[in-house]
Amino acid sequence: MRVALFSEVFLPKIDGIVTTLTKLLDHLAACGHESILFAPRGGPDRYASTQVVGLRGYPFPLYPEVTLVPPTVDIGPALAAFDADVVHVLGPVSLGLAGIRHARELGRPILASYHTDLPGFATRWGYGVLSAPLRALLTWVHNQADLTVCPSVATRADLERAGVRDVAVWSRGVDSSRFSPARRSRAWRARLTGGRDDVPVLLFVGRLSLEKRVEWLRPLIDAIPNACLAVVGDGPSRGMLEELLAPTPTVFTGWLSGNELAAAYAAADIFVFPGANETFGNVALEAMASGLPVVAPRAGGLLDHVVDGETGLLFEAEDCGAFVMAVRWLVHDRAFRRRLAVGARSRAQSRPWGVVLDTLVSWYRELARRRPLARAA
């Protein structure tokens, strides 16, 4: 098959969309499919066997780390020359609109994948007035596609309530060989604790930003003075968070990847995740594969894999006190913590990337087969 992809984000940025996209490009290459990716410039010219067409863009006002390529960009000739069987737009907001427009002009079927709760994020950023217009815009955009896929059951329900048609769940996978309790080491435990490797280690992994509610980490570590907190990641709230957590036993590692990230997960005891606007939560699944129970809000895509009392503990989404209580319970009840860790690892092992990506490719094939029936522009 020949697959053209459009993504609003790509390397060197690191987030859930980029992680999923790189896994997909690796899979397409391994299966012998041909692909081309249109993305903001600044990344590699090629990834796996995929040509990457870098396009000029501008910082997104609500999210300056994201570069928006204008929807007016003319990629029609390049897309026509590639002669795709199907066009996949990931998280379409701006560049994705250009992909949809040119795909319609060429009569190509379109699959759109929904990744980010932008309306919910806008509220967390203090721009709640934009939430409804953003939701209306995203509904309209996704209804231009022949099929929309999203990462979780809860997200599908949200999209359907908003009026998005033809929605299917495309979940996420995890490499349970890389992310494994077998990578646990005293050296990494000492690194995450500043040398105090005999204390409980609480771990947060993710973008350090307002929508992740990272400020909730301060009352958490205040309430459990015998624990250490390790923060893996970076983002616009890092300075604020470092200042907020300065008097506490907290270690900041910055972004980690590959085997270093896997070793950090395995060296911890409990994965803590305060953010309530996740459409899936890749980091939670990686933590589970590493043998960590997860404490997360009872909201969004996390509900697909964090099962209360089986793989972790869930708290009411807006209740910081309940978050703290759940973590404190696991710190003090080691037997229960170990039982949840076993359940978390087992559930994660049932989600290999290969099955997840094969499902997406099967939708590509179905849309290509139905190509003459693709909606007119």
Quick one: CATH superfamily of the largest domain?
A: Glycogen Phosphorylase B
Low-pLDDT windows of residues: 373-377
**What count of domains describes the coordinates?**
2
**Helix content range of the residues, please?**
25-40%
Helix count, per DSSP? 14
Name the beta content range: 15-25%
Instruction: Order the strands across the largest sheet as they lie in space.
Output: 3-4-2-1-7-8-9-10
User: Gyration radius, to the nearest Å?
Assistant: 21 Å
What would you call the shape?
A: globular
The CATH topology label of the largest domain is Rossmann fold
CATH class of the largest domain: Alpha Beta
Describe the largest sheet.
Answer: 8 strands, mixed
- Overall average residue pLDDT: 93
Structural class: alpha/beta
Give the topology string: H per helix, E per strand: EHEEEEEHEHEHHEHEHEHEHEHEHEEHHH
Report the count of strand segments. 16
What would CATH call the architecture of the largest domain? Answer: 3-Layer(aba) Sandwich
